[in-house]
Amino acid sequence: MQSLFDQVCSETSGDMDPEAFRHYGHLIVDWIAGYLSDIRSYPVLSQSTPGSICQALPRQAPVQPEAMETILADFGRVLLPGITHWNSAGFMGYFGLTGSGPSILAEMLDASLNVTRMLWRTSPAATELEQVTLDWLRQMLGLPEPLFGMLHHNSAILTALAAAREALNLQIRQRGMAGRREVARLRVYASQEAHSSVEKAMIALGLGLEGLCKIKTDQEFRLDVEALEEAINEDLARGWRPCAVVATVGTTSTTSIDPVPQIAALCQRYKLWLHVDAAYAGVAAIVPSKRWVLAGCEQADSLTVNPHKWLFTSFGCSVLFTRRPEIVKETFSLTPAYLQNADRAPDLMDYDLFLPHRIPALKLWMVMRYFGQEGLAARIEEHCRLARLLALWVDNTPDMERLAPVNLSVVCFRIHPPGIDDELTLELLNERVMNRVNAAGHFFLSHSKIRGKFILRIAIGNIRTTERDVRGIWEAILAARQAEVCLLRTNRAGNQFGIKRKINLP
């Protein structure tokens, strides 16, 4: 009997037969549904070794067509073991990314339409849906009108700082910076806890890492406003040209929230562009009792919020809001003859460095409609409750030490047994506990360093994470702690623990 593949491939050209597409589409959707319902059975952190996937794949591309059955089998055999399952309820490292059901379905529709949101006319629905959806989000967050919003694949810091530079009226768009002695070196300010994307933007914009001034933080890891003003005045005296300040609402390591109202007042006084990075924490303002996280952000020139971090929308959905869209357009608008048109509608490509976008608003629109504001707020609030519960367990455990406030849904702590105060020893102990938990496959947690101290960091943000999962990772940490502290005390006399940094776990 002929296989479906043989029947379809009797054609010498053309796409997959619609009936074959329907058949395999049903198979894939069924697999996705089963995967999501049974995701706890997969090891959260991939168990692959470097190079193993490359070795399992052919060195050359296929010359002849291959059956979809073969391709899908290789997906399961070769690729799936190399996946770290960010969609897992046990993924509690970094900031989790959740592809919720409506978001996954929207991605399928988006891929099927396969349009590009450049000009309004290249797909009117893509542009207008984005305008409507982001205004819905603005209202949910309690931000005032008017705010212009558009979607980016990831962080929009490059766009924001390019606009800040253009706002200085130095004609950099036209004349550049190289060789212009009349243009002072530009300076951008951010806290020591700001995301590394700020540094990458400085590199890309030609401002250089030396152009970024990192400001010290207070006891709660928030930008020190007095130190910021001192740095600005020192730079002015030395001939620098202050350009912008990046404030962070929800820093990566500790989710600290910079004092945006005071920073905004300072920026107004010195005529500096204020960009607020609220990529993770901004969506918490959907919860009415947490509107305070965006206090002062209405005064920012630009603001980033990432629904793909904590609004259950799959990756590639970062929002840039700005009060000064005309500056952004002046920075990036460049329309070649073949794209010029007389449509009386906004062309979102004029506000962005990158041209190709699909319909990024589609998945956010579907998520917002499916869960509703109350449903989204309830899920975010539950994650915050779970973080507070975990923090309580940490605080009540004698040899555990919490090292940062729990502002939202991230808990930073370390194991600190009595009598062990050497920082290198503590770092190795906590690293080994983390590696032991992660190697077991049920959970994944990540680490960071704050003020030179190695910390364990649990971020609760996946839509599938429940109290059962949080209790599970806590019990796994306690068990790993007991095992590693025993090893430490056994080996301490011979100083083996500090020397053998890498050891195969039993």
UniProtKB/TrEMBL annotation:
PROSITE patterns xrefs: DDC_GAD_HDC_YDC
Biological process according to GO: amino acid metabolic process; carboxylic acid metabolic process
One function term, GO molecular function aspect: aromatic-L-amino-acid decarboxylase activity
Organism listed in the record: Ktedonosporobacter rubrisoli
InterPro entries attached to this UniProt entry: Aromatic_deC, PyrdxlP-dep_de-COase, PyrdxlP-dep_Trfase, PyrdxlP-dep_Trfase_major, PyrdxlP-dep_Trfase_small, Pyridoxal-P_BS
Pfam families: Pyridoxal_deC
Cofactor(s) listed: pyridoxal 5'-phosphate
Annotated positions of the N6-(pyridoxal phosphate)lysine modification: K309
Family listed: Belongs to the group II decarboxylase family.
Keywords attached to this entry: Aminotransferase, Decarboxylase, Lyase, Pyridoxal phosphate, Transferase
Record protein name field: Aminotransferase class V-fold PLP-dependent enzyme
GO CC, one annotated term: cytoplasm
